[in-house]
Design a protein that fits this description.
This protein has 245 residues and is an alpha+beta fold. It has eight helices and three strands, in the order αββαβαααααα. A hairpin with a 2-residue loop joins strand 1 (70-80) and strand 2 (83-91). The longest helix is centred in the C-terminal third of the chain and has 27 residues, at 156-182. It starts with 23 loop residues before the first helix and ends in a 32-residue tail after the last helix.
Length: 245
Amino acid sequence: MTLLFVLFLIPLPAVAGDTCGQDRVILGDWFVAHGSPSLLEEPIPELVSVIQTDPYLDPSNPPPTPSPSFCAMQWSNNTVGGLRKYRLANFDSEASARTANYSITHRGHCASCSSLQDLGVYMRQNLTSATRHCGILGILSSKLQRDCLRDIGFSEECISIWGYNIVNTRKECFWVCIKSAVEGEPFNKPDGSLNDCLQCDEDKSGPNFKFFSGRTRRNSGIPSAIKRPDSQVYHMEHCYWYGQL
């Protein structure tokens, strides 16, 4: 989720299990360059789209989430400008995805941040500082916020849910997060629970964000500076690039 007021940055490990032994930045940059949503082949899962209406305005959201569900990808032999197209599809099990010759890209259904471009953005950097900066700019202008998220590298589809998420967290958690920042709270309390700002974001913005984004760091196996219970993390590797990195 967005962390609007955290004042320090903890770097991600350059090489970890999720990167198949590859350098995080190099592999992340490859996915950004080769995974634009414009390369997706039909049929595209319904929720992999730009969100036109703020989901936080509807108290009935989020809708029920299919469980279990997995978002998986498959490279196509068709190309555009030298780049291979690819498919995204939802499966009810890892085994069914493998049988169809698809590679799991995250646990949960495909949605606005499920593209490989957005995988690369999540993988190559700790998003905490960058998205915090975008949230601060959003106080001044929604255009500045959107341009900031675009500069990070997110797809337009993913920008749409991040934007709504930032606005909702600012609305619901502003003073809680100001207090956390002033007191210099670490991400996690001594007992391992989230600090008050992060917990507010998790409670008030998390359910809609997770449903409409599809991809999160946790369900993509990507490490984060925020400590989470192991049961919340889907451990996986992203070993499905082609050619040279």
